């Protein structure tokens, strides 16, 4: 077992890249698709053409009608043994259909003893039958009425692929790891890498501990051949009349994967929580649309397996007020991110002088962004996050071209890129101060990176030496990245000026930092990451102090070649000219 400090450090490395997507952004995308789909199917569904029949189908049952319910459990998908007492696990009477009263919701909790066949990847089905009060569900019963009884079958067992074995191992091969880690390493050595990649996925059976049976409150009269496509698969049509029975919906929307119980030889008693309750048409369709939106996101690669459960967990375990605040704040975070990005591009696109700006910080930021991108690529991250990080790398490289001269050297066998300082940067004190600040900060950062890499190599497991290098560098970027902001502070201190900084972009970033501080208090996260959130606050507070300490020099020439006094004089001249022209028109 790893010490808590090791687990915490590993948690920082695993959670940091995933949090770039943001829970709020993913929530916004899912809800937007769900709402769009719902109203699209509601108002723009298939219309009945003039050649279609005008026959309408309706519900065979009436609102508030009393129903009796039987729930049987069987290992066969087709069920006909209604006389088996062993198969009957739940029976209820006089359930009002689509009536929103306390008596319309029934619950039962029990323990189920699985058979040996079920433990060995067997199947088990729940067969639920409803009938009008006083009528039997068995078709062989003399009192059976086809128009008075209906049912549906649902699997209580789900089959999921077994999680891939952890191919990480101790690169040093020492005995510091726990016995479990040693076993994993031995297995990894015994099985060739090619076989582990190519072997087919092993499927395991899991028990669903909760079964929620919802009777949909739907009395809509549909056109015979124009039932909405999202509802049609769930409808149970009576063949003789063409009308439909009440829709039975097995609601698994809130059944998270971590609540499933794996079936094996040790599973001797399994919990089973049963519930029958009504559900409104709107709520039912919303569940269907959200599930479909999850599938669309997964098919496009914008959502990984398990992220849908994390979103649902936010609704299940989170405070509703806190959830609403989180969504609003996440939207503001996205807006400020966009504004900071826009102003950052505008600043560097118009910037003509590197006086007072740290060119080396721009280069280091590019390498930091590249390290994060390679780390995400090595850890099978969704393509949307990869695309965002890749675009960030391209923008940082473009900024190097604005901060320095990039030339292609074709004198050798292989063309090489050569970087040369701009004249506005090399011919003044900025380069001297930048080199001095970067010199000492490099020593500090190199020392911290080496120490953390040795710690990670000794106490943590990695897939390969390449993964160890990437994970160590990425952790250093996240935990010690604020050091890269210090050269600019040092240059400001030496020049006694902050007029060269893109303050509008920094203001938006500071607003985002405040939002990150809020998330640090309300969202569960490792303590190291929580502390790292406040590092940007300290840096920006120092920037604010420098802005107060070093007022803007009106004589300083900006990137457009104008000084503050020149601009004021030009504005005054323009105003006097306009006033003279107005006086002439008046006279």
TrEMBL record:
Please state where this protein is localized: Membrane
Q: Which Pfam families match?
A: CLPTM1 (PF05602)
In the UniProt record, which is one GO cellular component term?
membrane
User: What is the first-listed, main subcellular location in coarse terms?
Assistant: membrane
Q: Does the keyword Nuclease apply?
A: no
> Where does the UniProt annotation place the signal sequence?
none
Does the keyword Transmembrane helix feature in the UniProt annotation?
yes
Annotated stretches, region: Disordered:
168-201, 568-587
- Name the source's superkingdom: Eukaryota
Q: Give the way it sits in the membrane.
A: Multi-pass membrane protein
The cross-references to PANTHER family, in alphabetical order and at most eight, read: CLEFT LIP AND PALATE ASSOCIATED TRANSMEMBRANE PROTEIN-RELATED, LIPID SCRAMBLASE CLPTM1L
Family assignment?
Belongs to the CLPTM1 family.
State the protein's name. Answer: Cleft lip and palate transmembrane protein 1
Species of origin reads Salvia divinorum
The top of its lineage is:
Eukaryota, Viridiplantae, Streptophyta, Embryophyta, Tracheophyta
